[in-house]
Design a protein that fits this description.
By secondary structure, the protein is α+β, with helices and mostly antiparallel strands. It has three domains: 91 residues, no CATH class; 72 residues, Type Iii Antifreeze Protein Isoform Hplc 12, CATH 3.90.1210.10; 74 residues, SH3 type barrels (Roll). It is built from five helices and 16 strands. The strands form six sheets. A five-stranded mixed beta barrel has the order 11-12-14-15-16. It has a three-stranded mixed β-sheet with strand order 1-5-4. Strand 15 and strand 16 form a beta hairpin. The chain is globular and about 65 Å long. The termini are far apart. About 14% of the residues have low confidence.
Length: 263
């Protein structure tokens, strides 16, 4: 009787336990998939029983995933990936395409006069996977690498998805169009007439004052802020929604607003 009771308890415990970790797995050097359904087995070696777990869809020649998203999906399926390279993005390509680094752009031909002049010459460029409305923030799944005729590739196009993820569309953008820097901008964090907390930072000392923004501003852009008590306008730099910095720190905030955003 005691043996039967112990067996029942063991079965109940197994039913409620999470998936057992299958041990560390490694990311494949060139993840590819053939049917548009990206699985853990196409991303990791030795995925075992979790190999058929679908983590996303690929609509174009490539799809870009956040590394943290894949890491969480692997853990839920019982796999442990430590991301030893510290990757931020993972690019999965269509099977049979040219190999690429896991978190970088595919290898491409030079988009120069020579390439454009060759009949039928093609290159890979970053394109929009879906249509975006003005003001939409670009997500990793919104951009894919696509093969186009060399003469259709924009000059100076972004060389890595990391350059555009997190930026805001300046205007409506259609799916399939090549990504260009003139289409995108840092997202607006302060609107005209917003109440803004301005921090004056110098020598480790921070003083703050609240005022009204005179115009719209994106992170890293200058924004005049009207001090309602003194009537004076403060020359500041926007760093986050409702936050700006002035004084010696403002110049640093132009190039790296993120370092001040969480303060």
């Amino acid at each position: 009787m005691a043996m039967i009771r112990s067996l029942k308890l063991a079965l109940i415990a197994a039913a409620f336990a999470g998936p057992a970790l299958a041990g560390p797995v490694g990311l494949l050097p060139d993840p590819v998939d053939d049917d548009g359904r990206v699985t853990l087995g196409e991303l990791f070696d030795d995925a075992g029983a979790a190999a058929d777990v679908v983590v996303g869809q690929r609509a174009g020649a490539t799809v870009v995933f956040e590394a943290a998203q894949i890491q969480a999906a692997a853990r839920r399926a019982g796999l442990e990936w430590s991301n030893p390279q510290g990757l931020r993005r993972i690019v999965v390509r269509e099977g049979g395409a040219v190999p690429a680094e896991a978190s970088a752009r595919p290898a491409v031909a030079s988009v120069g006069a020579g390439a454009a002049s060759r009949p039928g010459a093609t290159v890979e460029v970053l394109t929009y996977a879906r249509s975006l409305a003005a003001g939409d923030i670009v997500q990793p799944s919104d951009v894919v690498w696509s093969t186009v005729q060399a003469h259709q590739a924009p000059a100076g196009g972004p060389q890595d998805a990391d350059q555009v993820v997190g930026l805001s569309a300046k205007r409506a953008l259609r799916a399939g169009a090549a990504v260009t820097s003139r289409d995108l901008a840092s997202p607006q964090v302060i609107a005209r007439n917003d109440m803004v907390e301005v921090a004056y930072v110098v020598g480790g000392v921070e003083l703050t004052v609240t005022g009204k923004a005179v115009r719209d501003a994106s992170a890293g852009e200058a924004v005049p802020v009207l001090n309602l008590q003194s009537g004076r306008t403060i020359d500041a730099v926007a760093v986050a929604p409702g936050r700006a910095v002035a004084g010696p720190a403002a110049q640093m905030a132009r190039s790296n607003p993120q370092q001040f955003a969480a303060r």
